[in-house]
Amino acid sequence: MGETTIVADATGVNATSASIGVNVPWNKVEAVIVRDEHLFLMFARLAGVIIPRRAFANDGEAQRFADFVRSKVQKAA
Fold this sequence. Notes:
The protein is globular. It has a 3-stranded antiparallel sheet with strand order 1-2-3, with no helix packed on it. It is 18% helix and 44% strand. It starts with a strand and ends in a 5-residue tail after the last helix. By secondary structure, the chain is of the alpha+beta class. It has one helix at 59-72; strands at residues 4-8, 12-17, 20-25, 31-34, 38-44, 47-52.
């Protein structure tokens, strides 16, 4: 599917893949799920942004990102 770009900022998370963009404001993120190989930012029961942990320089950065998202999300899991 080509390159995927994910940008998280003060307003939310923006993901672009195969020229399709998804913009999710923080108040729409329902859960942050951290697994061994991926982080999931869920904005619906079966829909979300999947971020591979390999996108981060190390596990510490992945955890800091998850903590950042949780600080922005009211209903983080």
